[in-house]
Amino acid sequence: MKKAIFLDRDGTLIEDKGYEHSIDTQKVFPRVADGLNLLKGDYLFFIITNQPGIGRGFYTETDFHEFNNHLLQHLNGNGINIEKTYFCPHSDECSCKKPSTKFIDEIVSEYSVCTEESWAIGDHPFDITMGINAGCRTAYLLTGHGRKHFKELKENNISPDIIENSFYSAAKKIKNWNK
């Protein structure tokens, strides 16, 4: 079976600018491509992202895809292939919004991924909860909203395997996890 990295997008790979979805202001965090390049070959990459701004009318699904494709082109230009992006467009509770494992379950079925050898990476407690509930290892980043929500991990008894200041430093720990 294959291994995967389930990536949050906003606040993990790129700066989280709220509901702004202009490709002109999209900023990838430093060394994200370096971190992904450390892990490629060992893992398939998937983005799983909550996008309530669609449901709230701040931007459209077309805007989302244009913005996301801009990121994918940037990563592809750095030798990174994201297999697929999964997104929840809903602003209310639903079956696909993280911490739901709906998208991980679909990936496991479609790509024959072993969750026990896979990782969920994000800057929100719900990213970690999703990963734990799916049976993955987890990495919590202090980027994006990570510092703001850090205390919620302890308050809600959520224990990520790794807590790091940057995507690159988390990638290095993941790469050496079982060595």
What is this entry, summarized?
The chain has helices spanning 32-39, 52-55, 61-77, 102-111, 125-134, 146-155, 167-175; strands at residues 4-7, 44-50, 82-88, 119-122, 137-141, 162-164. By secondary structure, the protein is α/β, with parallel strands linked by helices.
Question: Can you describe what's shown?
Answer:
The protein has 179 residues and is of the alpha/beta class. The chain has one domain: Rossmann fold (3-Layer(aba) Sandwich), CATH 3.40.50.1000. The protein has 7 helices and 6 strands, in the order βαβααβαβαβαβα. It has a 6-stranded parallel sheet with strand order 3-2-1-4-5-6, with helices on both faces. The longest helix has 17 residues, at 61-77. It is globular. The mean pLDDT is 96.
Q: State the CATH superfamily name.
A: HAD superfamily/HAD-like
Gross geometry: globular
Count of separate DSSP helical elements: 7
Give the beta-strand count: 6
Name of the CATH architecture: 3-Layer(aba) Sandwich
The whole-number mean of residue pLDDT values reads 96
Helix content: 25-40%
Largest sheet: 6 strands, parallel
Separation of the first and last Cα atoms:
19 Å
Order of helices and strands: EHEHHEHEHEHEH
What is the rounded Rg?
A: 15 Å
Q: Which quaternary structure do these chains form? A: single chain
Q: What's the arrangement of strands in the largest beta sheet?
A: 3-2-1-4-5-6
Strand content: 15-25%
